[in-house]
Design goal:
- The complex is a heterodimer.
- Chain A has 6 helices and 2 strands.
- Chain A is mostly helical.
- Among the domains of chain A are: about 80 residues, Four Helix Bundle (Hemerythrin (Met), subunit A) (Up-down Bundle), CATH 1.20.120.1200; about 35 residues.
- Chain A starts with a strand and ends in a 14-residue tail after the last helix.
- Chain B is an all-alpha fold.
- Chain B is built from 3 helices and no strands.
- The longest helix of chain B is centred in the last third of the chain and has 31 residues.
- The chains are: A mainly alpha, B mainly alpha.
- At the A-B interface, helix 1, helix 2, helix 3, helix 4 and strand 2 of A face helix 1, helix 2 and helix 3 of B.
């Protein structure tokens, strides 16, 4: 990856970054507070597509394509399949009210955000301006398979384990060996 | 020239905290899994940004592995959710009180 100087539109890229960041944060915030699961999934797809555009801006076009295909495509469609397959009960009010439900999360958010802002503002590399660069898919693939080929093999093994685990968990109960049917 | 590196880290931190809050506060099992997905995505944004900050490709390579972990985690997690729904008939984490803990 090499820095490229863009003299044509020096103000365009920061504006794009902030607009994309706002879209991502608003869509995620709407997604995690929806009561209906399908609405949450649709907002999350918007958030992931915004993330893909952000990756394109950060110089990773191959990862942007993968984000759209795998995150916004495969994983979210898997969620939709499960939501449609299961009989979801209508949403109901929590046991102790919303305050009891969200209070620990709000404490966590406040503390974590304070620590993040302090760390970033006092850290040595927080104010370094990013330059614009791009890693072509050819360059990235060459790097990945030269330096991380073993980790790629382990990732394929992880997929195999996940496949076997999902198949085992998804079997019908009655066919388990050593257990009477209809238990 | 793009934005300062700190702004990208703050964006990733805000997203991560939102995912953590979703996983902590929501009681639906599918929403908990969605929170975990948002957290993994935020970590990926931080890694790709760091890859651009130091002009090394390692951060982008690690995002590939985050994708692999997220995909397999969702497959096994959703299979577990289907299993729990068959066993107990509910997706509410508050109703898994068989042991009265």
């Amino acid at each position: 990856m090499l820095c490229t100087i863009n003299t044509a539109a020096p103000i365009l890229f920061p504006i794009l970054f902030y607009v994309l960041g706002a879209v991502i944060i608003i869509a995620t915030g709407l997604a995690i507070t929806r009561r209906h699961l399908v609405h949450a999934i649709v907002y999350l797809v918007i958030s992931f597509i915004g993330t893909a555009l952000l990756f394109f801006l950060l110089g990773a076009p191959f990862l942007a394509a993968l984000e759209v295909i795998i995150y916004a495509g495969a994983i979210m469609v898997l969620f939709l399949f499960i939501i449609m397959m299961l009989k979801i009960e209508p949403p109901r009010a929590p046991l102790g009210g919303y305050l009891r439900q969200w209070l620990p999360a709000l404490c966590l958010v406040a503390v974590s955000l304070a620590v993040t802002v302090i760390l970033v503002s006092t850290g040595p590399s927080g104010g370094v301006p990013l330059c614009t660069a791009m890693a072509s898919p050819l360059e990235f693939g060459r790097f990945l398979f030269q330096k991380y080929w073993f980790a790629v093999e382990i990732a394929s093994y992880l997929f195999f384990v996940a496949l076997v685990g999902a198949w085992y968990l998804g079997r019908r109960e009655g066919k388990l060996p050593g257990r009477p049917a209809g238990d | 020239m793009l934005v300062p590196f700190g702004h990208l880290l703050i964006l990733a931190g805000v997203l991560f905290v939102m995912g953590a809050a979703c996983a902590v506060a929501r009681r639906n099992l599918i929403m908990i899994l969605i929170g975990v997905e948002v957290m993994l995505n935020a970590a990926g944004i931080a890694l790709v940004g760091a890859s651009l900050r130091w002009l090394q490709l390692d951060g982008q390579a690690f995002f590939i592995f985050i994708l692999a972990v997220a995909a397999s985690e969702v497959a096994v997690g959703l299979a577990l959710i289907v299993y729990c729904q068959r066993r107990t008939g509910t997706l509410d984490a508050d109703r898994y009180d068989l042991m009265k803990g």
